[in-house]
Each structure stands twice: as C-alpha cells, then as structure tokens.
Amino acid sequence: MDFFEKMGFKQPPAPSADLDLPSFDFEEAVGSAVGCAATEPGLSGGQVKDNHDRTLVVTNVYEGVSLFAVLDGHGKYGKEVVELVLDALPRHVKNALYNLEEGTLVVRFSKVFEALEKELTFTLGDAVAESGCTATVVLQKGDRFLVGHLGDSRAVLGGAKGRCQPITVDHNPASPGERARIEGAGGVVAALPGEESVEESGSGSE
User: Fold this and answer.
1) Spatial distance between the Cα atoms of 74 and 81, rounded to a whole number of angstroms
2) How many whole angstroms separate alpha carbon 74 and alpha carbon 133?
3) Element (H or E) spanning 139, and its range?
C-alpha cells in the first residue's frame, strides 16, 4: 500500500505534461479546503511577545497556480525579514513559473529561496546576519502540488476520516541528521551568547 492509499486517496494518475508535479485526487483529499495557519503570540515576562508568524495566500499567482506560505521570523530583525519575504515571494514564484527554459519546475522553485536570500542581503545588509525566517511554501494547481521549505514551519496534508500526513521534515540542528548536513557543508551548530545549548533547547543556529 503506497502513501496515497494509506491516506485514503485514489491512486493518482500520471502527471500531465504541463506541470512536473505529483498528482492525486485533490477534491476528494481535502474538499477544496486549503489554507495556512500561524500561532497566536505567546508571553515573555508576562508581556505579549512580538509575534513574527505570518501566512500568505495568493489564489492565482500565475496561470491558475495558487501559492500558500507559512513564515516565522527570528532574531532582532525577524519582523523586517518576514515582511520583505511576504512582499517578494509572489514575484519570485511567478518568475519561476514563467521562465520555462531554466530547468524543471522543481529546480526553478528551489532557486526561489536562493533569490530571496540574495534580495534580503542586498536590501537589509548586515542587519540580517543573525536574523531570518522560516518558509514553507506550497504551489497548487488543480490536483497537483509542490512543497518547498526551510526551517521548522510545517506543511500537513489532510486525508480521509480526519487523517493527516506531515509532508515536510523540520530542519532542526538538534537532529543528528540535520547537524551532520550542516557540518558536512562547512557550517557550525552553536547557540548564541546567553542562549541554551542546542542539546538543552532542542534547536540552534547555523
């Protein structure tokens, strides 16, 4: 039994030629109910924290493709980073969908994240050295979807009878696999001064 059968979906047909995406019965799977959710702000010292969680829904970013995103800013300038990404993401996604000669859609979609990082650095400069945001982005057209993500915001696929299936895996430096990937790429996993260690907090920074 494959993933789709476990989730109660019909066996997906072969993907069409126009979008190189997995296919499944989208209407049966979620009843057309697709959306984003972000948390309410928590408390710090009895005061409501400045919440940098944001969501984005663009129902037709280009040629019938809908865009859904969940973002969570972090660091001193997390709010500024999130707001810039919210503004720039639809434009970069539209470019990825439009520029058909630059590889497959999966390749073009991955370059959206690279383009956003370059724009953030150009616009905010050194202010983003220790700030950033997570980004979980879903493109959906009819019965096809594509997911890309960075960080620990999650995408979940709802199935029949209330069942659900996570379709992203958190990028958490406390995870041995993620730590090995970071260190293998020449990065370092460490806590910032005054913060708990990665082992204590279950998270960390590159």
Assistant:
1) 9
2) 6
3) strand 132-141
Asked whether 56 and 67 are in contact (CB, 8 A), the reply is yes
What does residue 83 show for φ and ψ, rounded to 5 degrees?
-65, -40
pTM for the whole thing? 0.72
* Token pair in block for residue 36: 């984003």
Per-residue pLDDT tens for 156-201? Answer: 888 777 788 888 888 888 888 888 988 999 988 887 777 777 766 6
95 CB burial (10 A radius; 0-12, 13-18, 19+): middle
> Do the bridges between strand 65-74 and strand 156-158 make them parallel or antiparallel, or are there none, so unpaired?
unpaired
* Residue type present at position 149: H
User: How many other CB atoms sit within 10 Å of the CB of residue 1?
Assistant: 6
- Whole-angstrom Cα distance, residue 110 to residue 102? 12
- What's the residue count for the chain? 206
Angle at 191 between CA 190 and CA 197, to 5 degrees: 100
Give the up-direction half-sphere exposure of residue 132: CA atoms within 13 A in the CB hemisphere.
14
